């Protein structure tokens, strides 16, 4: 009953684990702010020392930006389990606006709340608390068993909150060292409180931006209203053409590569505890406004979108200016799913727009915006079923394969550069206020997160 | 041959008239800038003195803003002609940007150009040069004949370039003193060089502005793209619904009160020298974009418009922000013609928008924006035909009744408050650069403008 002993060890050493997490949380490792570069270094040093205390061969590795941390621990000689690569990030978001914090963001506190104990600090949830669930699971496992159940490579990044500029070069330069059988990532949420979740599909993203120019200069609407092409009307007409009246994107070929959600997954989602009414009403919506025929959860996790994020032209000041402006601007992003190809889609969207332009309208596209495909996890691998069972055992609730509306680019990079499938398991809650003031992590998330990883490690090793 | 003598006097005293105009142009009477309040006072004093030199009973009259100038000259005892009210404005636009002026804007210069001599200064055309054409015509007429041919009230405003805040109260408070048989206004252009023009219809204007609110707060497009109503898509769809594919406004009842241009007027316009190709190509257009079936001139002078002057929402900075914004904003103006009722039209436009709003979209209308109906001059009055003939004689070219794309609100106020028809005759050229750097007035406009008024006065007195 090795696992039981490990879980007992986790329970009895929780306070010590929380103390260690507090130590990491005290370091204000804000990666976007150059003034905190030394703090990022200190957080990396802290992690190197912590991994070394587990017996890992760990190093801080320089990059042109914030350092990476890489550590290796071999499993037992007779290990039969996979070689795992665990990823987390030690950098945190800025604390702005500081006035809205009720406590010092870098003086972590355990607080009682109506929903149980929380540890409150910047990074408590995103991602220091989450990454430490895995490290603490390894510590307990080793303490009880003398070694880990399989070979593990730890890989911690310090630039996740600032766009990961060093990540791709580092993965390319260290592909051999970082190769493994499966990546584990702990940077996601549970779909509902108490519902263990494996994020099995992440949407991709396509960014684009265009400017429509009509008249050569701003014109007086008394003289040119009518005869001159108004770019604001032109851009409105084009944006209105992007969707049909059912909310479906009307760009030809847009849905190529989109797959319907399999029935068995759909049934899991229907019962995963997601509260559609609460999700919508919390932002003032009485109903879902996306594609007709799809639930809010399916719209968010498994359907592509084309959304306008910025739109502007003409006069924005007080009162009236009788201008026919020369230009109008639109920023858009698409969320991609399945096998949608960002490059092909970009060409289709641009064609859709250009086909609809009036004579005398000139268009310019921003050439600097990128795209990334959706990532669909390889849930057919036996490790996914093993992890799902382990999580179900810990939480006494069937674990679900969830989607994610947002993007976690590192999963795609692991696949593309290292050829590595990723499994995303996280214990954050929707109300953790990540990126916001008063970020917290539930002590239950931390405690049962550690226990969850111990169970997953144990299951994967078999 | 009284008129011939008067015209000869105008020709022989042109240099003196230009000197007087230069005196007025030297006063930087910028009404929008409080720092120039004393200069506006000085310009009013200058005009009072100049009118007194004609024998007028003239006064500077205080308002809460810049002063008005009112002067009266009786005609001969046996005068049979109408009592005329002449309007002009002595205030000028700011000179910004000063760097683009090639000369001091308030040091008027006579310059030779490829198109003849011009007098260059701020206000040379708008409106000091224009108003002095009438004053100089009166001076010459009186010098030759001993008196004016009819009773004349001069009324000069000093706030035209800053929205005329004191005008309506002043007209109301002094309605008896300002009553007359016909108003003359010299603040308009000739439709083409050398084509004498009487502006017989001015478009009105309706201003409105709305904000559409969707989500209660800005949202992350990864989480809410799709399920949440995007106000940028909503506002684009609504703006796109304002016009049909022929460029006609699709708001129900929009064209109520619009009359087709009578054939005889249409024929005048077709032959008035307006160069559609030049007008459009100068701003980058290869064709007119307004209502199908109407020429550019008719679109500009005699058709109503609904134009978007400002449109904005979401992220406008560099790069991408994956936001579903909470709000989107639209500023619009309509140009009105014929008997279109601004209040009724405002209600129709608002209904059009509100009928098309999606569930969960909230709308707010700016309640502070006004409207004014179109002004159609009473060209059936015999004075119009008399003036047309007088202008045709002076310019050796059939004078035309033109429309105007813009608005001259004072004409409407004269009608509404004083019950006074107005006749708008002006000699400005499209290339006078009013409101722009290097404003000028052709010496020919000034000289033949004075002669024109002398002929018009003579004709009206008969």
Sheet with the most strands of chain A?
9 strands, mixed
User: Based on CA inertia axes, which overall geometry of chain A fits?
Assistant: elongated
Find the structural class of chain A using helix and strand composition: alpha+beta
Of all chain pairs, the largest interface belongs to: A-B, 77 and 77 residues
* Separation, N- and C-terminal Cα atoms of chain A: 14 Å
The domain count of chain A comes to 2
> Which regions of chain A have little confidence, pLDDT < 50, spanning 5+ residues?
none
- CATH fold call of the largest domain in chain A: Aminopeptidase
CATH architecture of the largest domain in chain A: 3-Layer(aba) Sandwich
Which CATH class of the largest domain in chain A is shown?
Answer: Alpha Beta
CATH level-four homologous superfamily name of the largest domain in chain A: Zn peptidases
Keywords summarizing the entry:
hydrolase (chains A, B), 462 residues, Peptidase_M20 (chains A, B), M20/M25/M40 family metallo-hydrolase (chains A, B), homodimer, five-stranded antiparallel β-sheet, metal-binding (chains A, B), alpha+beta, 19 strands, 35% helix
């Amino acid at each position: 009953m090795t696992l039981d002993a490990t879980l007992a060890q986790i329970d009895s050493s929780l306070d010590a684990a929380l103390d260690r997490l507090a130590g990491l949380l005290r370091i204000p490792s804000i990666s976007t702010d150059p003034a905190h570069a030394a703090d990022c270094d200190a957080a990396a040093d802290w992690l190197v020392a912590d991994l070394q205390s587990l017996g890992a061969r760990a190093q801080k590795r320089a990059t042109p930006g914030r350092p990476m941390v890489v550590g290796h621990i071999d499993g037992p000689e007779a290990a039969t389990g996979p070689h795992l690569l665990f990823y987390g990030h030690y950098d945190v978001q800025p604390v702005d606006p500081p006035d809205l914090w009720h406590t010092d963001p870098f003086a972590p506190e355990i607080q009682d709340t109506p929903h149980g104990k929380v540890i409150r600090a910047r990074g408590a949830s995103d991602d220091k608390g989450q990454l430490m669930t895995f490290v603490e699971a390894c510590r307990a496992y080793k303490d009880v068993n003398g070694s880990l159940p399989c070979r593990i490579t730890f890989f911690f990044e310090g630039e996740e909150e600032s766009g990961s500029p060093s990540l791709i070069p580092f993965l390319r330069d260290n592909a051999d060292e970082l190769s493994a059988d499966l990546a584990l990532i702990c940077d996601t949420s549970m779909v509902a409180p108490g519902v263990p979740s494996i994020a099995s599909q992440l949407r991709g993203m396509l960014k684009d931006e265009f400017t429509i120019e009509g008249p050569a200069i701003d014109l007086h609407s008394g003289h040119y209203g009518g005869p001159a092409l108004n770019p604001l009307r032109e851009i409105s007409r084009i944006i209105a053409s992007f969707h049909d009246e059912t909310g479906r994107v009307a760009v030809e070929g847009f849905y190529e590569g989109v797959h319907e959600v399999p029935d068995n997954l759909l049934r899991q989602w229907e019962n995963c505890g997601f509260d559609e009414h609460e999700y919508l009403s919390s932002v003032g919506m009485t109903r879902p406004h996306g594609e007709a025929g799809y639930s809010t959860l399916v719209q968010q996790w498994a359907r592509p979108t084309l959304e306008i994020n910025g739109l502007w032209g003409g006069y924005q000041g007080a009162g009236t200016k009788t201008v026919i402006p020369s230009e109008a601007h639109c920023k858009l992003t698409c969320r991609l799913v399945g096998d949608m190809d960002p490059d092909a889609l970009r060409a289709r969207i641009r064609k859709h727009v250009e086909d609809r332009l009036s004579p005398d309208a000139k268009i310019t596209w921003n050439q600097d915006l990128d795209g990334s495909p959706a990532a669909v996890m390889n849930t057919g691998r036996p490790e996914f079923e093993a992890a799902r069972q382990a999580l179900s055992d810990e939480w006494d609730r069937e674990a679900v394969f969830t989607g994610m509306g947002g993007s976690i680019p590192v999963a795609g990079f692991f696949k593309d550069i290292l050829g590595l499938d990723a499994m995303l398991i996280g214990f954050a809650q929707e109300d953790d206020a990540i990126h916001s003031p008063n970020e917290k992590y539930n002590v239950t998330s931390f405690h049962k997160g550690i226990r969850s990883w111990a169970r997953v490690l144990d299951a994967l090793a078999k």
